[in-house]
Amino acid sequence: MFDVYITKAAKYLPNEAVSNDEMEDYLGLINDTASKARRIILRNNKITNRYYAVDKNGKSTHSNAELTRNAVAQLFDENFTDQDLEVLSCGTSSPDVLAPSHAAMVHGLLKNRSVELNSSMGICCSGMNALKYGFLSIKSGNSKNAICTGSEKVSTWLSSPKYNHEIVNLKNLEEQPIIAFKKDFLRWMLSDGAGAFLLENKPSGEISLKIEWMEAYSYAFELETCMYAGGDKLENGEIKAWSDYKPEQWLNESVFAVKQDVKILDEFILPKGVESMSDAMAKHNITADQIDYFLPHVSSNFFVEGLRKGLIEKGVDIAEEKWFMNLLRVGNVGSASIYIALEELMYSGKLKKGDRILLSVPESGRFSFAYAYLTVC
């Protein structure tokens, strides 16, 4: 088995940062009315800036594949060119098209040479799953290098025109023309961007991060769906797929809108996160004092204190100064968030040889969690 190192990291955040007061300038008003939930949600998540790959007219400035390509391109230089790449592994929850795969669309923009492709679909853990594919490919000796990515382009999914048919339908039915909170909630949580890592079988440059291990857990066997798109949730908790709806229902009921069951999110995201992280650390005999930097991806600052308390109760007391997050400055970029956070830490000047880093990524889709433990070398 071969050692695996993150030798370079890059991010791409489109256009200018968007403040809280500007969000509806980009996403638009639903039913020409400002959202009543927006300020409450923003007060809880505490995000102050985020990035959108659209302009104020709602016109796209970048596709998801272009965001990813722009991050990947920064990893190439005279020492590692696009002709050296062997594996491209891309994760996202918001691909531009259902098919071909997201990785294939990114590769089509790179125009370098034939490489092995992997596409990881899901929600936030898709970026970590893409990373694990590259990690295992190099570790097994299948390849000498890989580029792994996480990226999101959700702004167009959240734009007001996507909900207009539902509003008109509600008016026709003489019902209140207000979209459900499960749909409005995520409009103020998610944003666009991409991150990329270069993985190699030996360290390179001034700083490299050795991937010691990666672990992943799913609780879908016992918990129902929480975050979803392309379907709707029935009273019994099952998901009815978009293909089982009539075409007119896709618009009238905003079937493709991203939705979240906030009730079960609050009930399970922290307990299962604490349980899985404790299990991962125990499996590899890692204690809190063997973590110099803890990078938890959280969708909202609302969960930070609860996560800290839950970990302490489990005997995992990570000092507050070891927590490294950039959620408030760059927003919740889903599968790209952990890439963007680690890129910032990697080039912050704070790291020294021997430092140990724990990455933690939860996914509320049906409650999955992924972890990686790194050593600075």
UniProtKB/TrEMBL annotation:
Its EC number is 2.3.1.41. The lineage of its organism: Bacteria, Pseudomonadati, Bacteroidota, Flavobacteriia, Flavobacteriales. InterPro entries: ACP_syn_III_C, Thiolase-like. This is 3-oxoacyl-ACP synthase. It comes from Flavobacterium hibernum. Residues 281-360 form the Beta-ketoacyl-[acyl-carrier-protein] synthase III C-terminal domain. Pfam families: ACP_syn_III_C (PF08541). GO terms for molecular function: 3-oxoacyl-[acyl-carrier-protein] synthase activity. NCBIfam families: PRK06816.1. PANTHER family: 3-OXOACYL-[ACYL-CARRIER-PROTEIN] SYNTHASE 3 (PTHR34069), BETA-KETOACYL-[ACYL-CARRIER-PROTEIN] SYNTHASE III (PTHR34069:SF2). Keywords: Acyltransferase, Transferase. One of its GO terms (biological process) is secondary metabolite biosynthetic process. It is an enzyme of class 2 (transferase). Gene3D superfamilies: 3.40.47.10.
